[in-house]
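Entry 14. Structure prediction run on the chain below.
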Amino acid sequence: MGFDFLADGGADFEHAITVTGFGKFHFSLLAVSGLIYMNTAIGITILSFVLPAASCDLEMDSTAKGYLTAAPMLGMVIGSYIWGCLADTKGRKVVLIATLLMDGIVGVISSFVQYYWVFLVFRFFNGFAITGAMGICFPYLGEFQPTKYREKILCWMEMFWTVGVIVLPLIAWLIIPLNVTYESDTFYFKSWNLFVSICALPSLMIGLWLFAFPESPKFLLECGEYDKALDVLRYIYAQNTGNDPADYPVKSLREKPNAPERSPRKLKLHKRKELSQLMAEVWDMTKALCKPPYLRNTWITCVIQFGLTSSYYTLMVWFPELFTRFEEFELNYPGETTSVCIVSSLEDNSTSSDPYGCQEEIASSVYLHTVYIGLACIPGSIILPLFVHKLGAKFFLIASLLISGAVTIGFYFVINADQNLILSCIFEALTSLGISLLYCIIVDLFPTNLRVMAAALSLTMGRLGALIGNLVFGYLIDLACVVPIVLFAAFLFITGFLSFMLPKTGKETLE
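Output returned:
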């Protein structure tokens, strides 16, 4: 391979990252980034098991459950853009660590709270934190990859999400049925509290592990920190090849013509003048996303995120609740068939004597069904990275959105729990694939100085959709559940057709 040098001896980034090789470092980075993504799957869907398990202790009816599932989504709406701004100005690694440690600490504390509204506030802060990790892990991983491997590596992240969806119900199945109870006059701690606490620990462990990884060299280069970027590239080279860092063949990097005189990473947030300078930079980047040449891609990705995320997170959080309602119906009316809407209205009429489900336990089949949903994602998680380079991420995104829209309509016509399970599996497999694909596409659509902020802006719209979806679903599931089913199906069809307008990605080097 020839060296791509200018007269000043500087190599471009694509050449510099390519000659580091591809090996041990990249696999370790995929592991930690994948675990972050897996952890977000756990953090976002944990309430699907807390809802039925803590219903009695926290005195939650359907509307209260809707508010609780909406709380972390509201945190995500607020947190996405804040963390995105910080990641594009202060660095990917430091913000990832901050979000993970905050999520872990808040999660552990929330497991000890005794009142519904206090628990709801803590889940808000969990959402606020975890959305930062979710929005940054894809750009962080992608910025270390040569163009040849980037799309395929990013698509393997879907497998980690799938593992998270499988692991969560297994942990819940292991912990929640345990007879773990400590009660006094002012304090209680039960198995669901233990479950919440255990699910918070991975955030702390992954956050601490991230200290061993470097900052994105692409981001450092964008900030004008050429020596630090070169040090990171030497480290990657040594990790991949086993050679001495001094043997790295690139001796200097090509300077960017528009690099800032002072790295934004050096601006101090506690100094008013420098904070004002940082806010001005954030505003300039925001304006850049909202005008050509980025405006078209910005609004398309935001609309797709809104429709896809509102459908996915709302239905995924409520699937265990729906499984529970089917389970109760089939116990009370053996041999009879029903639908999601009918069983919901019957459930609403039958709980006057036990409005908070204090006499109920989560059936084993509910855990098992949720595991099946995760297992259904495995084929897509394997097929995607193997064929994405041939067919393109855009092709898979369009297919996943349109088919999942048709599946959503199918929920209205199911007549028993088995049909509900089959459609739930297909829905989860396709929509989770779509979310991962959109993150992969965003990495290619925007330049380094806007990449995380663009992802954060689309995430904000997605979480806004999820927030609205959870509130609507929690209110309507007992009254007129056909409305949210039709609404979410329409969202998926619209976003599927809108995806045709996205450019093809994965072939060009990152800006």
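Residues 398 and 499 are 6 Å apart (CA to CA).
Filed with the rest of this week's runs.
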